[in-house]
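Model it.
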Amino acid sequence: MDVISPEFGKVRVLLVEDNPVGAKVARRLLELLGCEATHAWDGQQAYDAATTGQFDLVLMDMQMPVMDGLQATMKIRAHEAAAGKQHVAIFALTANGTDDDSEMCAGAGMDGHLAKPIEKESLRQLVTRATGSAEAPACADKKLAVDLDKALERCGGDRELLAEVAAACEESFAANSALLHAAARTKDGMAVYRAAHSLKGVFVYVCAEGAAKLAQSLCEAGQQGDMDRIPTLLDALACEYFDVSRLLVGNKPEL
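Modeled.
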């Protein structure tokens, strides 16, 4: 049997899938990776599990009964904001992966998508990327994504204020990411520039140098109308933001 080395034994994954065949395959692949997999059949079960349990990654099917993946994700993000909980990586499971899907996923607060049917290597790479494994491929400048000491200094040493700034950063990234995907789809260079410029200001303030540089590159591509560069830069920014979010939001007790 073709077995995947159990390299993610501490990773807790919430699998949200209403198709019994798809759920069986995905759960088995996660187990072969060594992940601890919990299964939810619909969006409501996903919301209940995500808000009462602790997960490192959520794989969310888009089309489900009771509550779809987009609705469930928005509710989870709202709960995180209200309860001050860390940002959990949520990836859509989609058979399409179109620009419209990417825009809707970003707008709902998802971190990306995984194509169905799921393949073992793409799943391994996603788990690596989403959980910050040491084996993750370089997505941008891999030095520390946020200078936490400097960010705290900018907040006057007030850790509570830094936590509020971190939450605002999350909201800004979700909103502007949706705008960037929409602008990329319509090839609106100036809209790319405006959204990227807004993000750059946020990243500079929280001392996320790598993310700020990528936002600046998006600004330049938008101004120059170089739309071919946009998708690659968006992927790189999303990848870099995992590290930013993990440091700035995910580890608040250590700030």
